[in-house]
Amino acid sequence: MLNQKPAVRLENPAKTNDVSPPSPVQNREFDSKTVGCVTVDKPIMTTRNVDVYYGGKQAIINVSIDIAYNEVLSMIGPSGCGKSTFLRCLNRMNDTIESAHVTGKIELEGHDIYDKKTDVVTLRARVGMVFQKPNPFPKSVYENVAYGPRIHGLARNHTELDEIVQTSLLRAGLWDEVKDRLSQPGTGLSGGQQQRLCIARCIAVNPDVILMDEPCSALDPIATARIEELMDELRQNYSIVIVTHSMQQAARVSQRTAYFHLGDLIEVGETSNIFTNPQDKLTEDYLTGRFG
Amino acid sequence: MIIRGHGRLQISRFHQYYSIVSTPLLIAVLLLLTAAAFELGRRRALQVAGSEFRTLHSLPRYYGSFTALWCALPAMLLLGTWLAFEDKIITSLVVADLPATYQALSESKLNLIINDLRNQLSGNVVSQELNPAMQAAVDHYGSLRATSNAALAVVFLSVAMLGMGMAWRKIAPNFWARNRVEAIIKLLLIICSTLAIFTTIGIVLSVLFESIRFFQAVPIFDFLFGLEWSPQTAIREDQVGSSGAFGAVPLFAGTLLISVIAMLVAAPIGLTSAIYLSEYSHPRFRAIAKPLLEILAGIPTVVYGFFAALTVAPLLRDMGTNFGLDVSSESALAAGLVMGIMIIPFVSSISDDVINAVPQSLRDGSLALGSTRSEMIRKVVLPAALPGIVSGMLLAISRAIGETMIVVMAAGLAANLTVNPLEAVTTVTVQIVTLLVGDQEFDSPKTLAAFALGLMLFLVTLALNVVALYVVRKYREQYE
Predict the structure, then answer these.
(1) Which residues in chain B have Cβ-Cβ distances shorter than 8 Å to A143?
(2) pLDDT, tens only, B258-301
(3) CA-to-CA distance for B400 and B338, rounded, in angstroms?
């Protein structure tokens, strides 16, 4: 019985938006059905009217949203709603998927990242990514962190490289645990440690934005808490976009939350507002656990 | 003529017994019995369970398999043992019955006589006219064989029936047929897997014993470190110029030279094509290109051989002349190049598979850090795929070392000790072939040298494998 209500609504999401309260920002210079304010004053990244197709199937429908400096933006929504796909557009990891096709405009500090002149290598150095399953390279802890700085030539000598590795591990909150085993394989660490190693590896190239694709879904609650703490610290220096299935996690770590549904960006808002007072019926149903 | 006619008569009589109970027939009967046993076992299981068929511990077909296995296996075991020992026992019985004059003969002469008896029995040409005593022995031999075969048939079939019956009687709802069948299957698997190991041990031992005989004639030191290879030994005392020199160094140098040339061709081409196919190419291109590449491995080596000898070698010689180089018409280079082409698929196909097996998550991790594709391949994918790549290379090297046909045709037979790839060289395998073809005395050092070479080759390949395993274990980056 509980499932019936949203099921009816799922078939016609556009109609849903017609009957929901008018969005606070009415006169946007771009066309968007999203409820709530998708723009911010000083964005580091802007996305406008993004569509993503896998072959003939459309996975993302006209999504526009800004990412601010020093914020954690969480993207929530039921499985298959396109939030990971959208995340992967932000550093063009979708390029590795043959059939994926992206239209619309995504800008990083005013530069179109899908422009022909954009070097995808530089882009990914500035927009780092942490994956769902910890994927440390089968190399030593040190080499894992030093990998990025090495390929980008960030260190002139060993001392500098050592410093970068130490700083990154310190920032990732892993230094104390691994400082005596830097030469041991990164794959030998525990799951939570591996994920923090991947975060350290990511921040070693000093990115502007860190994308996290369900970074805690393979971890136990203690390791999860550790990483959530870390994200709050990292926010001082980076912008973070996190995809998560845990609404509690989104509520804990993020300043803004975006709710995706079947490829549509339904609602965006301050995390505290969205969780206490969702404007859209779909968002409300999802947050109150009526489906998802 | 009369004797031969008599012999034919013997055969036909003998065949009367033999054809009834020939081994293929026995096996065919056993297969039928086994099939019947399966069905009987299955039915019995359903029958003892009655309407309560769900109370059966195992599925009915496991009871069938159990009965079938008990029918087939003991009988096959008996058949194998019987056939292994039958001939020895019959021969010793016949010899024991021969007149005392024959029994006093030396072993080799006695063997000759036994051979005659057998040939007479099966209608082949015999070396002498048979006297009555021997004729009696032939008859004795034939009747013993016939008896043995008849007995075998009886015992064989009774064992099969007995096994089936015992298994059949055991069937009950709480009988754990599935576990028994699993245990028997596991046992069969163990036997099959050890079979290959024992065969290898057997081959090594046989080569080893012949080699020891060789080293009694030629000092091992001369063989291992001698720089001259000329295996022609004098057959007569007064023969000149053929004292025989068994220094294996030129052969191993030749093998090494050609293998190195082959690997210089195959390793880079194979590895790069594997990288292209697995990392860059379109899946549709890969689906076509990979099987095409693997066809290279299916071309008979003799075809490669005349390609090397008739196309590549003259080409190299002409090119050499243009550059003012003296290239012999049979050169290590020609053989090595063509052999390199031949072993490309061993490198590329295996490397391609292991590169594909490297998890996508590692590639994503590297790309997300802003590495280029080639950085990702060099620093993440290849190190993770290293063990597989090395084993592909090893397989290729083993093929190169063991390859014979191309070298026979394109590299020549002259045992030159040289590192110049433009000269003719010879390899270990080529020499083994030339030592063993044609009419040879089997106890001369010349023939036995082949076994010593074989043993050395085996040891070299073994050492290569051990070293490679060690290297891989040391440098591999294990991703699981």
Answers:
(1) none
(2) 999 999 999 999 999 999 999 999 889 999 998 898 888 889 98
(3) 11
Q: How far is Cα of residue A217 from the mean position of the Cα atoms in its chain?
A: 14
How would you classify the pairing of strands A264-270 and A256-261? Answer: antiparallel
**For B282, which residue in chain A has the nearest alpha carbon?**
A98
pLDDT digits (tens, 9 = 90+) for B191-246: 999 999 999 899 999 999 989 988 988 888 888 888 888 877 655 556 555 567 88
Q: Is B477 an interface residue toward A (CB < 8 Å)?
A: yes
A4-287 fold: Rossmann fold (3.40.50)
Residue A134 identity? P
Query: What is the spatial distance between Cα B193 and Cα A281, in angstroms, rounded to a whole number?
Result: 65
CB contact under 8 A, A185 and B366: no
Q: Give CA–CA dist A291/A78, Å, rounded.
A: 8
Radius of gyration of chain A (CA): 20
Helix axes B177-217, B60-97, angle to 10 degrees: 40
**For chain B, what are the domain ranges?**
2-175, 245-475
B363 touches chain A (CB under 8 A): yes
Interface subset of B 277-306, CB within 8 angstroms of A:
283
CA-based end-to-end distance of chain B: 77
pLDDT digit string, tens, across residues B289-343: 988 988 888 899 899 998 998 999 999 989 988 988 888 888 889 999 999 999 9
Distance CA(B218)–CA(B245), nearest Å, equals 9
**Distances from the Cα of A20 to the Cα of A29, A282, B25, angstroms:** 21, 10, 86
**Which of A92, A87, A44, A40 has its CA nearest to residue A63?**
A87
| Contacts of A165 by beta carbon, 8 Å cutoff, 6+ apart | A142, A145, A146, A149, A182, A204
Tokens at B355, concatenated:
């590169």
ipTM of the complex: 0.84
Separation between Cα atoms, residue A256 and residue A268, nearest integer Å: 7
CB B290 within 8 A of CB B349: yes
Give the tokens for residue B134: 């021997």
The rounded distance, in Å, linking the Cα atoms of B334 and A187 is 47
Homologous superfamily, domain B245-475: MetI-like (1.10.3720.10)
Closest residue on chain B to A121 (Cα): B370
Nearest to A185 by CA among A140, A121, A126, A154: A140
Domain ranges of chain A: 4-287
Please tell me the distance from the alpha carbon of residue A265 to that of residue B212, in angstroms, as a whole number. Answer: 82
C-beta separation of A206 from A179 below 8 A: no
Query: B296 and B345 in contact (C-beta within 8 Å)?
Result: yes
* Residue A47: DSSP 8-state: E
Residue with tokens 């897997």: B193
